[in-house]
Amino acid sequence: MEPEKSGGEIRRCISEFGHAPEHNYSYFLTTAEFGAKGIFLKSSEGYGVFATYSEKASEVTMISEALAPREKQVEVLQEALDTCFGKLDVRKFVVEQDEALRLQTRKEFAANGYRALTPRYSLYWPVFDMGKWDGSEMGGEQWKKLRNIRNRFYAGHSVEVVDSSGLDKERLKGIVNDWVVRRKLLGLGSDRKDSNLAYYERYLKMIDLGFEDSRFAKTLVVDGEPCTITAGWEIPNSEGAYYSAIGISNYGFEGLGEIANLDDLNRLKENGYGLVDFGGSPMPLLKFKLKFKPQFVYVTHTYAIEKR
User: Fold this and answer.
1) Which pLDDT tens digit goes with each residue over 254-272?
2) What's the pTM value of the predicted model, to 2 decimals?
3) Alpha-carbon separation of residue 42 from 48, 56, 101, 143 (angstroms)
């Protein structure tokens, strides 16, 4: 595999082989954080790998699955490993996979000179089937708590929904910074295994990029104050599927987080999306997302690979 720097070629690869929620060009540009740099590796067959390289940690982190068919995943991963261990100062190569792909990788790597280590953490991805999701009506006992939160919120506040890209970037960054402060005060941790707080740099970069490649980026203005950011995009080559990548608030009002997520889900339902992926979540965040009653949850595992 060879490094590819052409944005046009990377976009072509996403268009042809992208299939996962995080297969998005602008999102890839945000992933080089904490001193790491983004790299895109392209195979001779045209497949690709999003990754970041931390020279300080001697570690490459692959972003999502390879941009390749399912049956080619392990083969493309092997190429990426050979390239990175052969050309970079790398001790570990970190991947994120679902359980079936992880087991397949471990089996095929048994004799190829690499060793898959124990997972560092697991993430839980809630998915909403919008044809079955009835949160827009909120009828019945199962929706009583959220229905009460919604009714109190709209009765007690003036709420306007605006395009995030139309707001001053510094005000949007203020939402992120307030969110970081509150998350730390709540003691949820800053590691990815505990919280999405580890992604705050990505959110700031998405603001700088003007939410390019997002289908929707919305902010709730409550009593005149911009308070939330929800943003996401359509999952490539997955008809009717949408990834809700960001959902944060400044915690300025009671019930704000619930209202922002309900607003996001209702908009996506109104726009005809079939499946909505609410993103990888550590267990504390999953418990919050389960309030909105997803139809199913899948699991991914993040683990490192090293040479034998």
Assistant:
1) 999 999 999 999 999 999 9
2) 0.93
3) 4, 24, 21, 47
